[in-house]
């Protein structure tokens, strides 16, 4: 896959990107150097993405597509096997713990599970103050800022002294967002922040994220599996399958006019709450003829999606497709048009 | 690089930022007092129960008495009175005397100090070795863990008694050193236990979040990992303490304790055992004190363990907990309108009427739910979490969780009331469970036993339900797997659950549910944990089972898209009751209840070709807790159309649009249903 292709759209302007990932490869399992030949297939395989200041890039794909692994690699929670992660022009790929700490206030995260992402033995205030205290802020100032940011995310400031056990899932996710925003970061990695929430709470949290971004200019790297949600919050979308980019481009383009058969399958599979329309979508999905996820087999030489793809030919199993520009989107497919 | 605070002078700014426009202030529950106190000191809270409290008091009392003994004990430990040997309790010698006429109370109390502190040394040495190793192994992963675990295995394989005797041979009877060696030997076992705990705590996302915060590694361990392990460490320490006292006494008993006249519990029991026939009393005081001390240590351990269990139990069921007493929840909803029996008339397969489910302590979780399932029909239960839809589904199988039971209502299976005559739901449904009614759940791995292959898990129920031979059962199992869309049935039959992907596991779980040839399948969020593509496949599979075999399905989901895809009829649940009910088409296309309409609007999957709204219409607030449910409209607090009339008790009525006098096929529980037009484009939220 070409490492030089920029992500299209306005994000590819001349400004220094808030976050840039180039040719990222992540392998789980054995440490590099030992028995390298028998290493398993990479969880992330040559992914590029660019996040411009104030923009949101959505990462979507089935489970095992590597979307959360990319998020972890960006945060330094997962070792990178190859490629680079650049934050505001600074290479973080093999940053030391000290270098990581220096950017910790500007590169933040919200995790999926609001229940395990807050330490039950610490008050909301303790949790929110922790990153501030690490930045050298005094206890009183940290508390003041914690109250302020809680109000920003729509919680009364007096909850600083409470424990997470007293809050509902949606409220906990607001606290988790407050923790991400408490140091006024530049980039926030949102790792499926609404997947564990009820529909109504999900809408509240999505609105909150959109408001905060529009008001404060945060950049979001938004990992999700629901294309409707991704379309709502993202400017650009990167569609992943087995660690590779299948399609990327402006959110409207990718979700409304998907070109890669895999993206088409993802779009067709998400059900809509209107029985008539859903029945049509179901038929359309069946007509697509995309193979079941359980029958997929990986062929390292060719397109990873070939075994499920209705368009697949011999070329697809032998030759790895490069990303090419189709309309406004980049598509990694020999046959898409 | 300079400190980030230098670069951002705005950071400590004190000016409050106004809340973001879309961020409605959320109602937050008032702080229950006990929750404030619990997490800080789990050990202290644990000791408020009588058993552990008495245990701890005993230990402290013995220790204090021993340390202060020179001040108040009337006799010296070696003070002999050969005229008064082998005496029982008396005013001079409260616990009697030993073979040399020495006061037993004095000697027991004097020996306690060494007994307790030396055991404490064992505990401390074991923990000082085991805790850091467990933390390091959990943090550094397999590379470090491989070595620490091998070393611990070697330690575990050593014969501890022989080593201790050898140590005594070398250094002599130096109790504290010997007990320290015991601590080293025992640390391997403690490490094994703590490693598992440390690894599971490290899985929690708040540990990752702290690492992202930039917290140093030892701080992450000290602040986030260790507190999560505290209960287990405390339990281990308390148990270990008891074990150490026993081992120490055992060594003294066989002669490796302090030399006479220095007292030790084990040595005193050894002497007493010599005179057990002539002076049996001598054994009693020391034996009882030793036994009580060990029991006390174990009682403390039990207390900590029980407390830890209750805290984690509370955390996991936190969303549903409520300790307020039962409201006068007798408001009748018997006047609810009856819906027309759906197509394929005749007696429905299952009729649920006035179903009520309550916790044993009080709050009702389901208050009067009625619906019916015809043969070959798919009925959906939809709503937010905390609305009682899973409880309703589970009560159809008599599989309610502990502490929750079906209190009222009728379950009619082909016209026969299963609960008639006060039969318990569990007993009545046992006959049907598996054979007539089967269930699949959100987490297919829960339905599958990780210890057995798919083959044996399918064959056993097939033989039981269908009375066939093993060979026939294997054939049927292969057919079943083919029926649920598994292509390579032979390979899957030989697989174990952990070798299956989520979608495959759910297919196997469905095959397992079909072994008894049920006529009703209860599916509790069957696709929530799956990818959208796999979800679509599972929904297609369920649909084909319905059309091909005439199976009926009750499906619980929070996703209206799933409901729209699969269901014939739908019941929208809110706060323990059905607020709207009818054909899927009618309810989703022309919702009559503001809650249904709001759920539809909050869905980001807008009709094809339509632009997404700038902000999603959302419902402010959360579902009220069961204890706060009223007889009026329970949605009123979050409803933008609420008026004073909404506080009045209300029943399901025919939805607007249903012809007057006809048996309705669409019902709604809303006093304003007739004046609202909810199908119009979403209005601007007035708030």
From TrEMBL, chain A:
GO MF annotation terms: ATP binding; ATP hydrolysis activity
Record has Transferase as a keyword: no
Gene Ontology BP term (one): peptide transport
Pfam families: ABC_tran, oligo_HPY
UniProt-listed PROSITE patterns: ABC_TRANSPORTER_1 (PS00211), ABC_TRANSPORTER_2 (PS50893)
Entry keyword annotation includes ATP-binding: yes
Assigned keywords, A-Z: ATP-binding, Nucleotide-binding, Transport
InterPro entries: AAA+_ATPase, ABC_transp_ATP-bind, ABC_transporter-like_ATP-bd, ABC_transporter-like_CS, Oligopep_ABC_C, P-loop_NTPase
Domain ABC transporter residues, every copy: 19-267
CDD domains reported in the protein's UniProt record: ABC_NikE_OppD_transporters
Protein family membership: Belongs to the ABC transporter superfamily.
PANTHER family: D,D-DIPEPTIDE TRANSPORT ATP-BINDING PROTEIN DDPF-RELATED, TRANSPORT ATP-BINDING PROTEIN
Protein name per UniProt: ABC transporter ATP-binding protein
Naturally occurring in which organism (per UniProt): Nocardioides bruguierae
UniProtKB/TrEMBL annotation, chain B:
Residue ranges of domain ABC transmembrane type-1 in the record: 112-301
Compositionally biased spans, kind Pro residues: 15-33
GO annotation, biological process: peptide transport; transmembrane transport
Swiss-Prot/TrEMBL keywords: ATP-binding, Cell membrane, Membrane, Nucleotide-binding, Transmembrane, Transmembrane helix, Transport
Membrane-topology descriptor: Multi-pass membrane protein; Peripheral membrane protein
Any one of the GO CC terms: plasma membrane
The protein's name: Dipeptide/oligopeptide/nickel ABC transporter permease/ATP-binding protein
Organism the protein comes from: Nocardioides bruguierae
């Amino acid at each position: 896959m070409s490492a030089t292709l920029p992500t299209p759209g306005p994000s590819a302007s001349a400004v220094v990107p808030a976050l840039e990932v180039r040719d990222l490869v992540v392998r789980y399992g054995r440490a590099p150097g030992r028995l390298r030949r028998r290493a398993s297939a990479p969880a992330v395989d040559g992914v590029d993405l660019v996040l411009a200041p104030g923009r949101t890039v959505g990462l979507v794909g089935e489970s095992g597509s590597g979307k959360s692994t990319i998020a972890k690699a960006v945060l330094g929670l997962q070792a990178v096997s190859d490629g680079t992660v650049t934050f505001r022009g600074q290479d973080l790929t093999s940053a030391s713990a000290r270098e990581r700490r220096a950017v910790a206030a500007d590169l933040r995260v919200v995790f999926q599970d609001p229940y395990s992402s807050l330490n039950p033995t610490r008050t909301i205030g303790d949790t929110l103050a922790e990153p501030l205290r690490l930045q050298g802020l005094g206890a009183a100032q940290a508390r003041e800022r914690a109250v302020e940011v809680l109000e920003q995310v729509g919680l009364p400031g007096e909850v600083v002294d409470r424990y997470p056990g007293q809050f509902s899932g949606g409220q906990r996710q607001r606290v988790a967002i407050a923790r991400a925003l408490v140091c006024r970061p530049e980039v926030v990695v949102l790792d499926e922040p609404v997947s564990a929430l009820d529909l109504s709470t999900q809408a509240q949290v999505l609105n909150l994220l959109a408001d905060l971004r529009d008001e404060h200019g945060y950049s979001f790297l938004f990992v999700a599996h629901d294309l409707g949600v991704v379309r709502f919050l993202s400017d650009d979308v990167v569609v992943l399958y087995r660690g590779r980019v299948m399609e990327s481009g402006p959110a409207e383009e990718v979700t409304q006019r998907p070109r890669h058969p895999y993206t088409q399958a993802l779009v067709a599979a998400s059900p809509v709450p209107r029985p008539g329309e859903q029945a049509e979508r179901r038929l359309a999905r069946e007509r697509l003829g995309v193979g079941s996820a359980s029958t997929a087999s990986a062929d390292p030489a060719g397109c990873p999606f070939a075994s499920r793809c209705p368009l697949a030919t011999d070329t697809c199993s032998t030759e790895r497709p490069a990303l090419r520009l189709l309309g406004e989107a980049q598509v990694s497919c020999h046959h898409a048009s | 690089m300079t400190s980030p605070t230098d670069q951002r002078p705005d950071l400590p700014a004190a000016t409050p930022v106004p809340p973001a426009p879309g961020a409605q202030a959320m109602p937050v529950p008032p702080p229950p007092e006990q929750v404030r106190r619990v997490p800080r000191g789990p050990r202290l809270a644990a000791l408020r129960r009588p058993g552990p409290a008495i245990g701890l008091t005993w230990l402290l009392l013995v220790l204090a008495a021993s340390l202060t003994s020179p001040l108040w004990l009337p006799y010296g430990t070696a003070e002999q009175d050969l005229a008064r040997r082998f005496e029982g309790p008396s005013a001079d010698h409260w616990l009697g005397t030993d073979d040399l006429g020495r006061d037993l109370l004095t000697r027991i109390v004097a020996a306690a100090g060494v007994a307790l502190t030396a055991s404490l040394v064992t505990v401390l040495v074991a923990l000082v070795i085991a805790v850091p190793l467990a933390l390091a192994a959990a943090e550094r992963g397999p590379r470090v863990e491989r070595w620490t675990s091998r070393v611990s295995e070697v330690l575990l394989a050593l014969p501890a008694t022989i080593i201790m005797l050898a140590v005594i041979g070398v250094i002599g009877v130096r109790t504290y050193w010997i007990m320290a060696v015991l601590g080293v030997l025992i640390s391997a076992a403690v490490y094994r236990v703590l490693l598992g705990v440390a690894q599971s705590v490290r899985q929690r996302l708040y540990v990752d979040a702290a690492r992202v915060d930039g917290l140093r590694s030892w701080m992450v361990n000290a602040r986030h990992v260790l507190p999560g392990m505290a209960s287990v460490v405390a339990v281990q320490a308390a148990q270990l303490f008891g074990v150490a006292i026993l081992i120490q006494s055992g060594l003294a008993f066989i002669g490796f304790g302090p030399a006479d006249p220095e007292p030790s519990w084990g040595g005193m029991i050894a002497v007493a055992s010599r005179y057990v026939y002539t002076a049996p009393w001598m054994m009693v005081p020391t034996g009882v004190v030793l036994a009580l001390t060990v029991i006390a240590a174990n009682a403390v351990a039990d207390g900590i363990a029980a407390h830890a269990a209750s805290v984690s139990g509370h955390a996991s069921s936190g969303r549903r907990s409520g300790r307020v007493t039962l409201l006068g929840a007798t408001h009748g909803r018997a006047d609810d309108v009856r819906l027309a029996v759906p197509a394929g008339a005749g007696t429905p397969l299952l009729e649920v009427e006035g179903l009520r489910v309550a916790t044993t302590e009080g709050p009702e979780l389901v208050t009067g739910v009625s619906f019916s399932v015809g043969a070959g029909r798919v009925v959906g239960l939809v709503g937010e979490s905390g609305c009682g839809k899973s409880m309703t589904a589970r009560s159809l199988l008599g599989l309610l969780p502990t502490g929750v039971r079906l209190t009222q209502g009728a379950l009619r299976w082909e016209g026969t009331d299963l609960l008639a005559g006060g039969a318990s739901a569990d007993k009545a449904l046992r006959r049907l469970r598996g054979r007539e009614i089967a269930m699949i759940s959100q987490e297919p791995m829960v339905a599958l036993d990780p210890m057995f292959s798919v083959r044996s898990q399918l064959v056993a129920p097939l033989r039981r339900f269908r009375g066939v031979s093993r060979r026939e059962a294997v054939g049927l199992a292969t057919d079943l797997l083919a029926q649920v869309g598994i292509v390579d049935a032979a390979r899957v039959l030989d697989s174990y659950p952990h070798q299956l992907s989520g979608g495959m596991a759910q297919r196997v779980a469905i095959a397992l549910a079909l072994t008894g040839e049920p006529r009703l399948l209860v599916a509790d969020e069957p696709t929530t944990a799956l990818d959208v593509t796999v979800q679509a496949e599972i929904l297609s599979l369920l649909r084909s089972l319905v059309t091909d075999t005439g199976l009926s399905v009750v499906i619980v989901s929070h996703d209206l898209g799933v409901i729209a895809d699969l269901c014939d009829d739908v019941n929208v649940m809110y706060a323990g009751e059905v607020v709207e009910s009818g054909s899927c088409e009618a309810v989703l296309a022309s919702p009559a209840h503001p809650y249904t309409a709001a759920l539809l609007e909050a869905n980001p999957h807008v009709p094809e070709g339509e632009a997404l709204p700038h902000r999603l219409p959302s419902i402010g607030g959360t579902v009220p807790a069961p204890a706060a449910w009223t007889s009026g409209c329970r949605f009123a607090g979050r409803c933008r159309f609420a008026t004073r009339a909404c506080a009045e008790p209300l029943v399901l009525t025919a939805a607007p649009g249903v012809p007057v006098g006809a048996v309705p096929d669409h019902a709604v529980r809303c006093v304003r249903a007739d004046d609202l037009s909810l199908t119009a484009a979403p209005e601007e939220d007035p708030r």
